[in-house]
Design goal:
Helices cover 27% and strands 30% of the residues. With 315 residues, it is of the alpha/beta class. The protein has a domain at 26-243: Rossmann fold. A hairpin with a 7-residue loop joins strand 8 and strand 9. The termini are far apart. The relative contact order is 0.11. Its main location: nucleus.
């Protein structure tokens, strides 16, 4: 029997609540790690991807000997790290004589391997090799454009799969409304041959055009590389169908201080702050006070008249 451990602290309960299934899931995080042996080129590739995914990525610098994608039993450690870091995407780099500068991009479902794409990196240029204004560097929280050039992205199965993984990897959190000021970069993917794709990252520079719509220019800021597809593995039909399930219920906005009772129905609580009536300034004159002053004046006049009458009688 497996031991079921319950959280003992409030912090652990909150963390488990964040990872629990929701109608609207959290944004996907990316796990970046490396194998037993890596090259300098591959280390720079992983570092640049980490900078592009800043804020939503976790990078491990320790080498992992037990991770071997596409092999039975070689994905256990990868699934463990995915569960530990709560990451749905991963980028794994390795280097060998048979597969130099090897990069494995993949996704997980319920912290189990969903699909894999293995590519080789060629003609790599890092972000530091481009001389450009630092103001054009990608900022945290901005959204990119994607341009897929070539018919292969619609007809070739390997390229279609690579397109799906790249979109999931770099698009960030899914949102409904977008401010155009927050779109400042674009990823351009061009098919060079049947299994080779040229990937480059450009910044958008807005220029005056004499009209309301500005003229946009692309400035290459890196990284850029050629991706040669080596192996890929699609999910099974059953797993794909299960992962694509969506809930028909819309998330209801929580109403504070309102509860429902079977007998009394809808019950609401109203919180009123303490009122300091003694310190309040009354800027109005009450009618009752005016009446009291009028009656006091009349009584004073009556008493004065009686005193004058008594004085006259005495004389």
């Amino acid at each position: 029997m497996l031991e079921v451990r319950t959280p003992k602290s409030e912090r652990a309960r909150r963390e488990l609540g964040k990872r629990a299934p929701k109608l609207v899931e959290n944004g996907k995080k990316t796990l970046i790690l490396q194998g037993t042996k890596t090259s300098n080129v591959l280390n720079t590739v992983l570092t640049d991807i980490y900078h592009l995914k800043r804020g939503t990525a976790i990078k491990y610098s320790r080498r992992n000997d037990n991770i071997r994608p596409f092999e039975s039993g070689g994905e256990t450690s990868l699934e463990f790290f995915s569960l530990k870091t709560d990451c749905s995407l991963f980028v794994f780099g390795s280097h060998s004589k048979k597969r130099p500068d090897n990069l494995v991009l993949g996704r997980t479902y319920d912290h189990h391997i969903y699909d894999l794409v293995e590519v080789g990196v060629e003609n790599f240029k890092s972000m530091d090799s481009f001389s450009y204004n630092k103001k054009l560097a990608p900022k945290v929280g901005t959204k990119p454009f994607f341009a897929f050039i070539g018919e292969g992205f619609e007809s070739v199965e390997e390229l279609k799969h690579l397109k799906e993984v790249l979109l999931d990897l770099f698009r960030g959190e899914v949102i409904e409304n977008l401010n155009l000021a927050g779109v400042d970069r674009v990823f351009v993917c061009t098919v060079l041959s049947g299994n080779k794709v040229f990937l480059t990252h450009c910044a958008l520079r807005l220029k005056r055009s004499g009209t309301v719509v500005p003229r946009m220019e692309l400035v290459e800021v890196g990284p850029s590389m050629d991706l040669v597809i080596r192996r890929h593995r699609l999910p099974s039909d059953g797993l794909r169908k299960e992962a694509m399930k969506t809930s028909l219920e819309k998330p209801k906005k929580k109403v504070k201080n309102v509860s429902h009772d079977a007998v009394e129905g809808k019950i609401g609580k109203i919180y009123i702050p303490d009122q300091k009536i003694g310190d309040m300034e009354l800027s109005y004159k009450a009618k009752g006070l005016k009446r009291e002053r009028r009656e006091a004046k009349m009584n004073k006049e009556t008493s004065s008249n009686e005193s004058k009458k008594m004085k006259i009688d005495s004389e």
